Amino acid sequence: MEIGCFVPETAVLEPLLSESAARHNHLCPRQVLGVRLGLCGLRLLGLVGDDYLPRFANADKRLLTIVETDGCGADGVAVATRCFVGRRTLRVLDFGKMAATLVDTWGELPPVRLWPHPEARLLAQDVAEDAESRWHAYLEAYQHIPDNQLLRAERVTLTQSVAEIISRPEARILCAACGEEVRNEREVVVNGRLLCRPCAGESYYR
Hints:
Layout: H1 10-24, H2 29-44, E1 63-67, H3 72-81, E2 90-92, E3 100-104, E4 112-116, H4 120-127, H5 134-141, H6 147-150, E5 151-155, H7 162-166, E6 172-174, E7 181-183, E8 188-190, E9 193-195, H8 198-202
Parallel strand pairs: 1-2
Antiparallel strand pairs: 1-3, 3-4, 4-5, 6-7, 8-9
């Protein structure tokens, strides 16, 4: 889809990068990509203007974001979109991809999935050719390259409904095997018994 030739002003970008760096203990290129990706997604959903203002707050949990990495970029996306795991507005599906899907749960526009342009690294080295290293070139250039040269985007349809993803906060059961509480309809039915996913065979521990 067409992204448009837009670049956030320094006054918009710097506070977000500072917040991401504070959460992450330093600033790196993928955090910059994450912030840019989040801002572009907000713009494409009409949640901010072409100047990326006013700053999106997500106080009403209108936006749901799904990130496809558990790395540095996820922190940048979270800061830009104001979606966080603890608020149940950020989902992490670790596909090892620097990509994210933004879902406006109130709006009529379909979700938008964004990822870095495959030539972003090469372009960054040209834009910041005097940088002391490729890492520093990425860090600098990713802040200034226009959206349509830095990112790619597509409209998508989720394979689950938003209601299924978010569930109901009061929904809870006790696992018939281990007795632990399971919330948000994450249980599974096995031979007529309600089980937590570890007891149903999906455990990551033993």
